[in-house]
User: Fold this.
Amino acid sequence: MSNQKKKFNSSVKKADFFIEFREFNNIKSEDEKYKKGMDIIKNITNFKITSQENELFYYSGLAELYYYISKIKSKKYKLSNGFIFEVEAILDEKNKQYLDEVIEYKKISFDNYKKSLNAELIKRCSERLKELNKTQNQFQIERNIEGLCYRNREELRILSQDLSNLYYIINDEDAFVFYGRYAIEYGSLEVTSLFLKYYCDKLDYDNAYTYYNLMSKFNPKDYGEHYKNVYLKSRSYSIFYKFLYNLGMYEESLSVAKECKRYLIHLELNMNQYEVLKNINEHIKKCELKIDEFKEVKCAEDILLNYFDKEILNLMSDDNKIYILTSLKIYEYMKTLEITMDYSATLMPILKAVENIMYEIIAKRYRGFILEKKEPEKRYIKAFLDKDDKFIMKMDRLEYGKALSLIRRKNNYKSLEDTEIIPNNYFLEFCKKNNVTNARQVVIEIYKELDRLKEKRNLVAHKNRIDEECVKECYDILLENIKFINYLYTNFKFVFEN
Assistant:
């Protein structure tokens, strides 16, 4: 066969694809179009790329063909309703074969769309067409190719979005991210929003912020369905400001919520958007309250620096800071009144703070130490046992009396003044293991001051009237002279650092 004859036959073979593809595109019936598409795919190996000018159109057509078939298969297998994926059907093990088939067709389509958008291929095709069509309007050739590439980019956006969503549903993270990045590159707000949610769920702030930033700059009018993108963008704002709030980043959360509000109020509102605005306003109030609380705590720290250094304040919980500050504020207020007052309200918060500190040391950390022992002697841990001598698995609070019983051995002394205080063997061991300096003396001092505070706590609890002198005595123990709270944080620093 002559070279001319071979060239002619090859051209016919090549032309056959475009003829078949044109026929495929002209079919209106979905069933007939699907059948025609499957016939072309079955004979796909018979079609060869024979010329540079046809290469671009061949890949484009092939991509369109496989994508269309994947969509119809997805509908036929009830994996989608034609618009959105049916999650339950996709996750049903019985449909795995169908799902794999749909994904495979979409991947083939994806690969061919990528080929059709290769810059070198587009340039080569354009130059070849200009060479072959010297009499034709060269500008029009460029416009036609640009139009084709624009359509292919849009199709690739939708296709990679489909693949990313499918892999997200079946929890294939690597494939979800791989195709998702292509979708985002070609302008998918849907996947940008999904990436934002994905990284928020993983508590990955850096990546979450990256995709929030992309989303916030996104103009919904630039791509796809305007109203759908408006919804996605407003929902993404909500995902991110809730994420920030849960991280304790209240000012940042407030800023994003306000940005979302500014975005929405410039839109033509419907009733649903009004409801969204209502939710945003509620969130803004929540953030402002948290920020005010935080400012109060910071203000409290300025006052508390008169009694504690910064290192101790860093160990102290916000609750305990507030309890101590409340006590001081109430005391200052009561001193301004020219009538005899009951100062019980002054002591309750600060004594609660001490109780919280002892709870952290004894009920949580020391109790964990005891739990690690195989068979601890029950006489040393009575306060950790119930009436049946079984270990109490959960303790919500620790009273002064129980704390005292757990840090010293029971003996028959009549008063503190004339009787030696003997530390509980286990508690002393616990202190030494955690490198408490001069552990024995520390335990004895803690016991002595706790016992004095217990007396004051009982007066308050039993509704006795508390005078100013009693408050001064407590402040002397807790804040000013003995500085018992400081003493606890200093010696048990290891409890509060983690």
Q: What stands out?
A: Residues 206-304 form a domain with the Methane Monooxygenase Hydroxylase; Chain G, domain 1 fold (CATH 1.20.58). The chain has three domains: 3-205, 206-304, 311-496.
